[in-house]
Design a protein that fits this description.
The protein is mainly beta. It has a single domain, classed as Hypothetical Protein Aq_1857, Chain: A (Sandwich). The longest helix is centred in the first third of the chain and has 13 residues. The radius of gyration is 14 Å and the shape is globular. Pfam families: Fe-S_biosyn (PF01521). This is Iron-sulfur cluster assembly accessory protein. GO terms for molecular function: 2 iron, 2 sulfur cluster binding. InterPro entries: ATAP, ATAP_core_dom, FeS_cluster_insertion_CS, HesB-like_dom_sf, IscA_plant_cyanobact.
């Protein structure tokens, strides 16, 4: 288990509060850690992964205010410096990703290109 000295992503206070709520209340999240990553697909070529998962060999581990997080080291280049925010309003509800590495993003807000 490798710990990261510098955090690859940051979370706003609202995102941390929502993730801690999910970790405490969602049965599928019990005993798992937050995985932050990317995968191929989406409108612009890549989509964000933000899910509760079991650690895998080679994962890097980091902690944000008591929230255990995982990242595949090969995903760091796409995510470094990204801020994750939670919008809890009636008109726009969900996690948003502010990624300085994205050359373009899609209107859906979860797809990007590098």
């Amino acid at each position: 288990m490798e710990m990261i000295a510098q955090l690859p992503v940051t979370f706003t206070a609202s995102a941390i509060a929502e993730l801690k709520r999910l970790l405490a209340e969602e049965p599928l999240a019990m005993g798992k850690q937050l995985r932050v990553g990317v995968k191929g697909g989406g409108c612009s070529g890549m989509t964000y992964v933000l899910d509760f998962d079991e650690p895998k060999e080679g994962d890097k581990h980091f902690d944000i205010e008591g929230l255990p997080c995982l990242i595949n080291p090969s995903h760091e280049i796409y995510l470094y410096g990204m801020e994750i925010h939670w919008e809890g309003g009636l008109n726009s509800r969900g996690f948003t990703f502010n990624n300085p590495n994205a050359s373009s993003t899609c209107g859906c807000g979860t797809s990007f290109a590098v």
